[in-house]
């Protein structure tokens, strides 16, 4: 397992390794001990695969857990889903000392992070990314958002998570196209000034995904620590994203920006 500490407005640990999901309850308990309430947020695809493992771990750690599951895909990353999540948090009785846990890819992470940043003026959020793209990009750095009809990520907030857990075992269930989205992001880090990473990619990624993912996260950490609110060098991380988002929107989200 590899650990990367991000020291932004809030310091937190990003852990990368095999078989980490069953330990998520213990990890969160080290940060915000139970008894507390947790809202576990996921989409219908990821929930069918991994929600039971996460739920069991959180409950065994002593948390009272509610779940919010929404239809997968970018089409759900909107204000309607956000309002439904806010209402679910209120109905579950979450207080300011409670926690939102995002289990899924970038859509799940973004919407959960934004809901947590704004519910009761801000509660803790813990990220469990389940796609390669989310592991090396959206789960780290505190950018949270939902889409508006005029474009992607037009309504959001900078809000750092309390921790991130990247279980490389979950990558085995990724469809090829979703996996390729993440590979594009990994290559991006290499071309932004990491020739060592590019040399690693000449070998099979599957031979050591932990090393590659941790290297990408370390690169993102450096950019976030220098420019948390994206006013300077952090904008280099947008390489490919801006045009990709336009393609994504104009295709009706049938082509992913990855």
Task: Provide a concise account of the structure shown.
This protein is an alpha/beta fold and 258 residues long.
Q: Quick one: biggest sheet? A: 7 strands, mixed
- C-alpha end-to-end distance: 27 Å
Tally of strands: 9
Helical content (DSSP H or I, runs of 4+): 40-55%
Mean pLDDT: 95
Rg: 17 Å
Sum up the overall morphology in one term: globular
Q: Can you tell me the residue ranges where pLDDT is under 50 for at least 5 consecutive residues? A: none
Order of helices and strands: EEHEHEHEHEHEEEHHHH
What percent of residues are in strands?
15-25%
What would you call the structural class?
alpha/beta
Biggest sheet, spatial arrangement of strands: 1-2-9-6-5-3-4
Q: Total number of helical segments?
A: 9
Describe the structure.
- The protein is an alpha/beta fold and 258 residues long.
- Helices cover 42% and strands 22% of the residues.
- It has 9 helices and 9 strands.
- The chain has helices at 24-31, 44-60, 79-91, 106-118, 132-138, 176-191, 195-200, 209-226, 241-250; strands spanning 2-7, 11-17, 37-43, 64-70, 99-104, 124-129, 143-148, 151-158, 163-167.
- The protein has a 7-stranded mixed beta sheet, with helices on both faces. The protein has a two-stranded antiparallel ribbon with strand order 7-8.
- A hairpin with a 2-residue loop joins strand 7 (143-148) and strand 8.
- Helix 3 crosses helix 4, helix 5 (132-138) packs parallel to helix 6 (176-191) and helix 5 (132-138) packs parallel to helix 8.
- The protein is globular.
- The model has no long low-confidence stretch (mean pLDDT 95).
